[in-house]
Amino acid sequence: MNNTMTIWTRKFMTNRLLQWKQMATDVLHPGKATVPKTEVPGKLVKMYKTTPHVTFVFGFRTHFGGGKTTGFGVIYDSLDYAKKNEPKHRLSRYGLYQKKNTSRK
Amino acid sequence: MAAPEVLESDLSSAMALLKNLQEQVMAVTAHIQALTKKVQARAYPTEKGLSLLEVKDQLLLMYLMDLSHLILNKASGGSLQRHAAVLRLVEMRTVLEKLRPLDQKLKYQIDKLIKTAVTGSLSENDPLRFKPHPSSMMSKLSSEDEEDEAEKGQSGASGKKSANGAVKKYVPPRLVPVHYDETEAEREKKRLERAKKRALSSSVIRELKEQYSDAPEEIRDARHPHVTRQSQEDQHRINYEESMMVRLSVSKREKGRRKRASVMSSQLHSLTHFSDISALTGGTPHLDEDQNPVKKRKKVPKKGRKKKGFRRRR
């Protein structure tokens, strides 16, 4: 089985309102398990020649039968915009935000 | 010569025409004199009127003046050739003709204005009658507010105007409500029509059509030859998710429907099960691919419909 992972991006759009470039990413991984989220931004960075700390990916769903996973990718114009517009749970996945565990009582 | 005969036969008709003319001229003169008196008494103020009509008035008057000048000329034996008045008449005539489509466009407005002027109020089915009248509501609200202010002594919402004199009750416009009168027979008929439409576009009928029609065979780049409702819904969901960049949650019902659809399509079940064309043949309806049973209308008892502790499952 080949060990290649191919990424296609579809529905690419530059969104000026949120200062990002959004796209739907198709990851092809025949014969392998679903590619973890941490590997995909690296490939996107190479494709779009950005920096890794402004690329975020989320929402990966593998199609029935395996081999293909579809998710969403987002590339911000700058880290400031990323910190402003990105939801906190996604920022914490990349270590840019830490949730305060305050006690309930 | 033929000339005196022609003259004689024409004489009587000419006399009659001249007499007619004289009577008409007298009537017109009287009318015009009455109008002139009224205009001089300023009974017809036209400052706030439609400017198009004013232009038309002036043009017609000028036309009349030129025309009467020419008639005078001709009656006293002059020639009309290359008379300046003729050119003016032609020009005015062209302008009047060009104004005619404008007149057509304004016809509705003018008619409505005339009707309003005559009757003094809007007609029954004038859509302007249905616009809201906040002024009839305003006095009620402001009068309430004033009472509150007097009682509590607070400064209420600013910007409220003082109440008008009489408190007018708000009367909503009277639109004719249509009664819902669909009988069982009509519902049956509608259902039958829908089933017929569905049957006409089923694969059996389509293949028959292709067999017997003379039209060339079309081969289309079909995404999926067997489009079911579930597959269409899935496609819709996928399109939404990708354009909105969100993932939608799937409810239990939706999961069940998907599972049923996948099970049905993965078996060879659908190979021999064609869609229901009983609507065209007049037979009994059977289940279609989506496995939706034919809806029967049951009389639901009104009482005791809601059980205690019943939770609606979505």
Task: Please provide a written account of the structure.
- The complex is a heterodimer of chains A (105) and B (314).
- Chain A has helices at residues 40-48, 79-85, 88-93; strands at 6-15, 20-28, 55-62, 68-76.
- In chain A, a hairpin with a 5-residue loop joins strand 3 (55-62) and strand 4.
- With 105 residues, chain A is an alpha+beta fold.
- Chain A has a 4-stranded antiparallel β-sheet with strand order 1-2-4-3.
- Chain B is mainly α.
- The N and C termini of chain B lie far apart (109 Å).
- In chain B, helix 2 packs across helix 3.
- The radius of gyration of chain B is 40 Å and the shape is elongated.
- Helices cover 59% and strands 0% of the residues of chain B.
- Classes of the chains: A alpha+beta (105), B mainly alpha (314).
- Chain A: Pfam families: Ribosomal_S24e.
- Chain A: Belongs to the eukaryotic ribosomal protein eS24 family.
Give a brief rundown of this model:
The complex is a heterodimer of chains A (105) and B (314). Chain A has 105 residues and is α+β, with helices and mostly antiparallel strands.
